[in-house]
Amino acid sequence: MKNNKINNRIIIVILTVIILTIINVYFKNSRLPSAINVYTSINNDPETILNYSKYKHSVGGYKEAIEGYEAVINNPSSSKSLKLKAQAYLILSQHGQALEPIEPIKYLEDSKAKSNEFKRTGYVFLDRVDYITTGDYFNASKETCYHESEFTHLDENGLPMVKYSDYNGGDGSFHYNPVTIAQFSLTAFGRYKNGTGTKKQFIDSIDKLLSLQSPSGAMRLDFSFKHYINNDIYKPGWVSSLAQGQAISAFVRAYQVTGDNKYLDAADKAYMFMCIPVNEGGTKDTSEDLDGTDNVFFQEYITTPKSYTLNGFIFTIIGIYDLSQTKDSIYKGDAHKMFVNCNDTLLKVIHKYDLGCMTAYDAAYITKKDQYPNMNIQYHASHIELVDAMYSITNNPIYKYYNLMWKSYVV
């Protein structure tokens, strides 16, 4: 019996040596260029150099990877998309970061089709987002969507009301949506800051937002709505972390402008309600159904199965960040800890939203059997901006990687 164990160990050692030898021979004899030939090969095939550099990156050869990425970036024959990809990988290698994990490319062809649709549509996104709590919120001052239309009505004060049709589970009437009012207020703030709007316009919109907040701090949505994941109808009074987070961003800016504690109190209450667990009526959840952990995740939509909407989560995180930067808030310290926790969650799960040539709106395709990924070109543009905002706040290269990579899909 003892001799059999020894023989088994010898066999394992021999097989290991054989496998390693094959791998070594493959990379020596493959068409991938050696490090010495990186610059001489670049004029012939920059994509080959990119692949070679990714290989060196994957095995910890950061110096050679950097040289290859830079060669691709500087080569005039490289396409804009290829250069953006090289820039994305470069920022990781410069910081000694491993390549980001890649989900199975089951939906690659579908995401390519959506990418081409994006290019045909001509959607634009901010080239750079330097996010600060006192600044113009995602360049909102340039927003031009607030006008009369089939689904939008401006009230006597110019504030938008939104109609949700039967298709969306609505009643066909116009309603004030706290998300829309918060976004309108952030637009008014940006215009006030850059001189194209007035303080009164901003405060009028904020006071309307304040009137939509319940005593508990909830920014309840008072209309029916149907979520595509299960077609259940949300009854009026449902809650969303997006409404809470963007209301916080608007309220703290009103406090900056006026110094009036009622706006700071509103921001604090919105945060307090948002942090109530989903099973108790709030919006705070975990990422368990997404990655098997109990990391914090705030839900834009409370669904069964869980949907894990990407843009809603990041906008919520940014609202939490805004509160953490507001020195007079009683939740300043708690909001900072919550921001750190949410940032950690996002960094762990963000790769699950990358479908190879387009981003997923949410993670329902993971949590619900046979669910097709929801790919939306408008939200892909938003995702590009949101991760850049997170990069400007945290300086974490992973966010810049995704900003550049997701740009490369649609240029």
Q: What is the domain tally?
A: 3
Give the helices and strands as they follow along the chain.
HHHHHHEEEHHEEHHEHEHHHHH
CATH topology category name of the largest domain = Glycosyltransferase
Shape: globular
Helix content: 40-55%
Query: If you compute it from the alpha carbons, what radius of gyration comes out, rounded to the nearest whole angstrom?
Result: 25 Å
Distance between the termini: 65 Å
* Unreliable stretches: 1-6, 23-33
CATH architecture of the largest domain: Alpha/alpha barrel
Give the biggest sheet: 3 strands, antiparallel
Widest sheet: strand order? 1-2-3
Assembly form of the protein? single chain
Q: What is the count of helical runs?
A: 16
How would you characterize the overall build of this protein?
The chain contains 16 helices and seven strands. It is mainly alpha-helical. A hairpin with a 6-residue loop joins β4 and β5. The N terminus is likely disordered. Keywords: Membrane, Transmembrane, Transmembrane helix. GO terms for molecular function: heparosan-N-sulfate-glucuronate 5-epimerase activity. Pfam families: C5-epim_C.
Write the layout of secondary structure elements.
Blueprint: H1 2-29, H2 38-41, H3 46-58, H4 62-74, H5 80-94, H6 108-121, E1 152-154, E2 160-163, E3 174-175, H7 178-194, H8 199-211, E4 225-226, E5 233-234, H9 241-258, H10 261-274, E6 284-286, H11 288-291, E7 296-298, H12 310-324, H13 332-349, H14 364-367, H15 377-394, H16 397-408
Antiparallel strand pairs: 1-2, 2-3, 4-5, 6-7
Helix pairs in contact: 3-4, 3-5, 4-5, 5-16, 7-8, 7-9, 8-9, 9-10, 9-12, 12-13, 12-15, 15-16
